[in-house]
């Protein structure tokens, strides 16, 4: 039997093919990305540098001697590689299981291409079974939660988590996300919301899926 970690590794190793040499790239956060950083370090690919989205990814990049630089110092990122908590056939995603979706959305939006890497359990017909992470300003947590409740979701504070930017995460269960772009905008318009984990505007361009039959490369709208 192939474990979930093995499937993540299959996707991560295949994604090396999408990394151009002599360019700057962006890198996300999570266990699939950890496999990707390892594969990148071992690949011998010559890249100019990486913009990272979390301390964990930065530490791993340093271990492999891969140069890192801040987003403000880079004009162009050729590609952004990151995992997802859920991804649909249009390659829209829910992210933020690791509470890093704000940094991830910033770096994704600065990149020319988004390559999502995931094991096959993440590929879903409908977004929303995974609770939607919403980063909130701490003092607005109750206000935002009431608005999310009015939208039909069940908000729950993620206990013990403070984001990179000093905010809190409210995870929203049972929310209808059948129109991801509309929902992403609606939630971000609530005063006190910093960013939510729907990647509708920043959907991936390519999905590299780790399956028991090997890596599958999927484009938006493909079955
Ligand atoms: C972090 C994320 C991750 O991409 C997502 O949680 C997937 O993680 P993993 O690769 O460990 O399954 O959005 O904020």
TrEMBL record:
InterPro entries: NagB/RpiA_transferase-like (IPR037171), Ribose5P_isomerase_typA_subgr (IPR020672), Ribose5P_isomerase_type_A (IPR004788). Substrate binds at residues 29-32, 82-85, 95-98, 122. GO terms for cellular component: cytosol. The active site is at 104 (proton acceptor). GO terms for biological process: D-ribose metabolic process; pentose-phosphate shunt, non-oxidative branch. The keyword Ribonucleoprotein does not apply. It is an enzyme of class 5 (isomerase). One of its GO terms (molecular function) is ribose-5-phosphate isomerase activity. Keywords: Isomerase. Pfam families: Rib_5-P_isom_A. It catalyses: aldehydo-D-ribose 5-phosphate = D-ribulose 5-phosphate. Its EC number is 5.3.1.6. Catalyzes the reversible conversion of ribose-5-phosphate to ribulose 5-phosphate. Belongs to the ribose 5-phosphate isomerase family. This is Ribose-5-phosphate isomerase A.
């Amino acid at each position: 039997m192939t474990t979930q970690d093995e499937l993540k590794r299959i996707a991560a190793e295949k994604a090396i093919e999408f990394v151009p040499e002599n360019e700057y790239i962006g890198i996300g956060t999570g266990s699939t990305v950890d496999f990707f950083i390892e594969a990148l370090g071992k690949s011998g690919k010559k890249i100019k540098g990486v913009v990272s989205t979390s301390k964990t990814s930065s530490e791993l990049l340093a271990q492999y001697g891969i140069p890192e630089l801040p987003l403000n110092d880079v004009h162009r990122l050729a590609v952004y590689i990151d995992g997802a908590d859920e991804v649909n056939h249009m390659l829209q995603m829910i992210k933020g299981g690791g509470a890093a979706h704000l940094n991830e959305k910033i770096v994704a939006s600065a990149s020319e291409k988004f390559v999502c890497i995931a094991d096959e359990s993440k590929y879903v017909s409908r977004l929303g079974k995974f609770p939607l992470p919403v980063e909130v300003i701490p003092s607005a947590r109750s206000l935002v939660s009431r608005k999310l409740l009015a939208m039909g979701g069940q908000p729950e504070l993620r206990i013990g988590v403070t984001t990179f930017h000093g905010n809190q995460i409210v995870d929203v269960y049972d929310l209808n996300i059948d129109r991801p772009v509309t929902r992403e905008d609606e939630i971000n318009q609530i005063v006190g919301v910093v960013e939510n984990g729907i990647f509708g505007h920043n959907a991936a361009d390519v999905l590299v899926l780790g399956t028991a039959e090997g890596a599958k490369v999927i484009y938006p709208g493909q079955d």
